[in-house]
Amino acid sequence: MPDEVRTLPALTKEGFEAMLAESMPQVTKSGMRIDAMDHGSCRVRVSPDLHMARPGGTLSGPTMFAMADLALYGAVLSMIGPVPLAVTSHMTINFLRKPALKDLIAEARVLRLGKKLAYGEILLHSDGEADPVAHATGAYAIPGHRPAPGGAGG
């Protein structure tokens, strides 16, 4: 079996966190944090607090949607580098079951990266549980010129 060639992320976890702190400080204030990033993937985590809860003892849909959006943003930037003006062009989320009020994890992966559009999927699950609580798909519009793929920038 040949050795697998691993592509380094074009934007590292640390680079993404720095970019978010500068251009989107509301992310840090939301309590969401970046668990991991690799080329084409990003994992986001949030520890819920009372402003994220809804009646019935569960996390709110807007919290889960925001996590999915952030995770896909990170996955896309891990492939194209720091492009703050890449924006969500479409996102759909399906809520599958009620999440517990414990850490929620969103794991995104890019399925297709084109010159102007990236498409991916996101699975959300409660920490320690394999079954997803939500599934999302989305697309990001990529403005202007992109840097060459491959570097470890950020």
From TrEMBL:
Transmembrane ranges, per UniProt, are: 70-88
Instruction: Please provide the record's keywords in A-Z order.
Output: Hydrolase, Membrane, Transmembrane, Transmembrane helix
Q: Which residues form the Thioesterase domain?
A: 56-129
Highest taxon in the source lineage: Bacteria
Q: What does the record give as EC number?
A: 3.1.2.-
Q: Which GO terms describe its molecular function?
A: hydrolase activity
Give the InterPro entries listed for this entry.
HotDog_dom_sf (IPR029069), PAAI_dom (IPR003736), Thioestr_dom (IPR006683)
* Enzyme class, spelled out: hydrolase
**What is this protein's record name?**
PaaI family thioesterase
